[in-house]
Amino acid sequence: MEKVKGVFSKIGSALKSHLKIVIAVVVVLIVAILAINLIGGSEKRAIKKYFRAINSYDKDKIVKAMDLEGALAWSSTDKPEDFADELDDVDDDDVDSAKDTIKEQVKSIKENNGKIKLDKIIYVATAKEDKNLKKVYIRYTATSKATDDDKEEAKDNDNWKGMKAVNETITNYATVYLYKNKVISGPGISVYASYSFDY
User: Cβ distance 153 to 165 under 8 Å?
Assistant: First the structure.
């Protein structure tokens, strides 16, 4: 028992004599852990921000959650090696047109009464040509609430007694592309007018 007490007293006196070094090491470890957590979750935060923006039905929030220049460039090519050249070709008129397209799509989302939620990130891959370009494979859930018209139609159905309109929920997998930790492609919104809204 005396040996154990002796060992602990030696450790205690060593820690006391080097208190500043011990505190510095603990602070460095805490900062390193926080930095890893903040950096490692950047893809998740970017996608959640994008989905929250879609769920808000606010065009400006959606535009803020996306990199529209990157989205337009990625829509022109799906090859990471061509992305930088396409990005250089995007001009302000293209970005303004994309904003108008998003505004129209927001109306469609609102009509569908849709909500989208990130369930899980399956993996993250970084482009060899550009570390700012990431491919994120996710699982998500999309819900479309029954509208008043759906409820009325179900209630007045002549063929089926007791029919009810229900919320529709799907769980699906998708690839989301990020550029500089902002969404450039993913479920919910497209920068091209030909896109039809669908989760």
Answer: yes
